[in-house]
UniProtKB/TrEMBL annotation:
Pfam families: ATP-grasp_5 (PF13549), CoA_binding_2 (PF13380), Succ_CoA_lig (PF13607). GO terms for molecular function: ATP binding; metal ion binding. It comes from the Bacteria. It comes from Streptomyces atratus. Residues 536-574 form the ATP-grasp domain. Transmembrane segments: none annotated. Keywords: ATP-binding, Nucleotide-binding. The keyword Phosphoprotein does not apply. This is Acyl-CoA synthetase (NDP forming).
Length: 743
């Protein structure tokens, strides 16, 4: 399949080896270091670093107890016991059967309880219907890890969720770490030890969904670990991401995730992987309402708002794919391919139709297919007829493949400094030409640091060129579909671009409250929605510009206020329970005289009385025009806590749904990236002769709103600045309206 280098390690090599069990039963160093870093807290009291659990003794224990062991044929526990015995022998662990009524199991002396074992064990595998009564016994025996296979917990509904909560509480009190419940034997699978190169570490919440990745071993891809997390009453996906990212043998982490136990823990784990340069590829179900319901019924977890999950993964470099086939192909490529030398992709084929088709798909997916230089095209035409296109895609017409010219063409393409990836789609076998083409690609791949990919399109898959030549290569990435190849190559280039510039946002997250926070605290009203006037005072506290305005309670005062603010003015009703003023006719714009202001005051107060709306006054505001209306806000996500959104604003915000979201903390680069995701981003650059707006000011507002979200935390249930009028370049941005809800 693919290459043999992982890249530069970013932490001390021996520390990572010890932490991941490369030396049997080595002393643990990682927990001491990470306990210190995990104690660093942000401004809201949350950790800024992921603690790495010491899972060495879980995957490579010195001793194992099988509670509920059996050798009675026909019983489920018998097959599990037999598999655990085989696994313990492979990893060099001493295995002790435990059963209250058996003297022996498979010829091994059986103890009535864990307390009666001759030594303290590292791992207890619980083959019992209810693991809760056993937890205290394990704690007293100082067992470090336990695995609970039993089902009937949160995946079954409220009663099961309550039972799982009791189990989690017992585990937390005990001090041991638990995998499960509702897990399986995947952690104890047999992994091939004859494969070289960086490995894939696998995490799945549904064991069967990891089978396609596990079987990559049959294609020559190394697998090092499999963590079937089940219901995650204790150990969760984030724990294993943190651990695997420190293992020197792991080249990529592949995940099948149904629900995240804790969003913050997941982000900290993803951050740790990003710091280490270890790519994480994930299938995360729940994109649709149906998928989310199914996920909840299976593992009993929140799936979160999918847009937030998607954004959070992108922030920290987690590569999200949709299918298990994409998961296996993308993880295999990322685990084993060397760092790209360039981002240019060249498509090379023996058919103009194949090359054009693949190139269209690749370009549409965002891959860069540079036009080869005139000099390079002349060189290629030494071996390819002049009437064929060699600009990119390169069409050789077929005949050069069968002789010495085939290798010359491949080497010439790979020698181009702008080319980082060569992709050769072979839509079907046509011996002997396809056999020689495959061999030339494999031989060329051995002499270059650049990525060589082949798409073998035959539905049969038993051909010698595929099974032996291509799959026998550790340097060629072989795919079966165009789509999977394009997805994996894009992820490969995106990951290395991300890794080259990654700076952890947690390193720059505020540790102490700002002076703005103290001002804002005094303005908060727990359990209430703030009036527009009060919400704008909150924005002022954080240095966000609002228009000149005064809150008045009489017609005469409104006229005086208008004179101070300056005509033309806008007048709006202001009240704590007033969210949608325009729909009720409680906004008047473009008032240019005292009489208009006086009349508007009376009309607004009359409407408010008629609608039964309680006001704290009427706002007389500076009228701000000639800008782009945006929305910037804060909402609380069930998984990740406060999130920041920016998008096109105004009265059509709920119609357009053109918005981008991020999870704090994030830096200026992510704030600008949010704007780049908007479909209407061209409005910021100026359209139909309009000038570009002050994007820097918009970014600054987003970052100040993020600071509010971080410091006020759960106390700020919702913030909505709509519209935020972004003025011409260099003129700033003004929050024309605001809504804030306090917890």
């Amino acid at each position: 399949m693919l290459g043999s280098t992982h890249g530069t390690l970013t932490t001390d090599f021996r520390a990572r080896v010890v932490a991941c069990g490369e030396e049997p039963h080595a002393a643990v160093h990682s927990m001491t270091v990470d306990a210190a870093t995990a104690s660093v807290l942000d401004v809201s009291g949350r950790p800024l670093h992921a603690a790495v659990p010491d899972l060495d003794r879980f995957f490579r224990p010195g001793s194992v107890a099988v509670v509920g062991a059996s050798d009675t044929e026909g019983r489920p526990n018998t097959g599990i016991t037999r598999q655990l015995i085989d696994w313990a022998e492979r990893v060099g662990a001493r295995l002790y059967p435990v059963h209250p009524t058996r003297e022996s199991v498979f010829g091994r002396a059986c103890s009535p309880s864990v307390a009666d074992l001759p030594e303290q064990v590292d791992l207890a595998v619980l083959l019992v219907g209810d693991p809760l009564p056993v937890i205290e016994e394990l704690a007293q025996a100082k067992v470090r890890f336990a695995v609970a296979f039993a089902s009937g917990f949160a995946e079954t509904g409220e009663e099961g969720a309550a039972a799982q909560a009791r189990l989690a509480e017992a585990v937390e009190r005990s001090g041991l770490r638990l995998l499960g419940p509702n897990t399986n034997l995947n952690a104890f699978e047999k992994f091939r030890d004859d494969l070289d190169g960086p490995a894939i570490a696998l995490i799945t919440q549904s064991g069967h969904q990891g089978r396609p990745v596990y079987t990559l071993q049959e294609l020559g891809v190394r697998l090092s670990h499999w963590a079937p997390t089940g219901n995650e009453a204790d150990l969760e996906t984030a724990d294993f991401i943190s651990y695997f990212s420190q293992c020197p043998e792991v080249g990529a982490i592949a995940c099948y995730v149904e629900g995240l136990k804790d969003g913050r823990s997941f982000l900290l784990a993803a951050d740790r992987a990003a710091r280490a340069g270890v790519p994480v590829v994930a299938v995360k179900v729940g994109r649709t309402e149906t998928g989310a319901r199914m996920a909840a019924s299976h593992t009993g977890k929140l799936t979160g708002a999918d847009q937030v999950v998607d954004a959070a993964m992108r922030q920290f470099g987690v590569i999200r794919v949709d299918g298990l086939d994409e998961l296996q192909d993308t993880a295999a490529l990322l685990a084993r391919a060397r760092k790209p030398q360039a981002e240019g992709v060249v498509v090379y084929s023996i058919s103009g139709g194949t090359g054009a088709h693949f190139s269209d798909l690749a370009t549409g997916a965002g891959l860069s297919l540079p036009t080869l230089s005139e000099a390079k095209q002349r060189e290629l035409h030494e071996w390819i007829p002049d009437y064929l296109n060699v600009a990119n895609p390169v069409d050789n017409g077929g005949h050069p493949v069968g002789d010495w010219r085939g290798r010359k063409i491949i080497d010439a393409i790979l020698a181009d400094p702008d080319v980082g990836v060569l992709i050769c789609p072979i839509t079907g076998p046509f011996p002997p030409m396809s056999d020689k083409l495959a061999q030339d690609l494999v031989d060329a791949a051995e002499t270059t640091d650049k990525l060589v990919c082949v798409v073998w399109g035959s539905p049969v898959g038993t051909e010698e060129a595929y099974r032996t030549t291509l799959l026998g290569s550790s340097r060629v990435a072989t795919f079966r579909t165009f789509g999977n190849c394009i997805t994996a190559v894009k992820a490969y280039l995106d990951h290395h671009r991300f890794a080259a510039s990654y700076r952890s946002p947690f390193d720059e997250a505020p540790r102490t409250p700002s002076p703005s926070f103290r001002k804002a605290q005094a303005l908060m009203r727990p359990g209430h929605q703030l009036s527009e006037h009060a919400a704008k005072q909150l924005l002022r506290a954080y240095g966000i510009r609002v228009p000149r305005e005064q809150l008045v309670t009489s017609a005469a005062a409104s006229v005086r206020a208008a004179a101070l603010v300056g005509y033309p003015v806008v007048m709006k009703a202001s009240g704590a329970r007033l969210a949608h003023k325009t729909e009720l006719g409680l906004v008047k714009v473009g008032l240019t005289s005292a009489s208009q202001v006086r009349d508007a005051y009376r009309e607004l107060t009359d409407i408010a009385r008629y609608e039964g709306v309680e006001l704290d006054g009427i706002l007389v505001c500076q009228m701000v025009e000639r800008g782009v209306e945006m929305v910037v806000g804060v909402t609380q996500d069930a998984l990740f806590g406060p999130t920041v959104t920016v998008g096109l604003g105004g009265v059509l915000v709920e119609v357009l749904h053109d918005a981008a979201v991020r999870v704090p903390p994030f830096g200026e680069d992510q704030a600008r990236s949010m704007l780049g995701e908007l479909r209407g981003r061209a409005l910021l650059e100026g359209v139909r002769g309009g000038p570009p707006v002050d994007v820097d000011a918009l970014v600054e507002v987003v970052l100040r709103v993020q600071r509010m979200a971080l410091e006020l935390g759960d106390d700020l249930t919702e913030l909505d600045i709509n519209p935020l009028m972004v003025l011409g370049r260099g003129q700033g941005a003004v929050a024309l309206d605001a809504l804030a809800v306090c917890r």
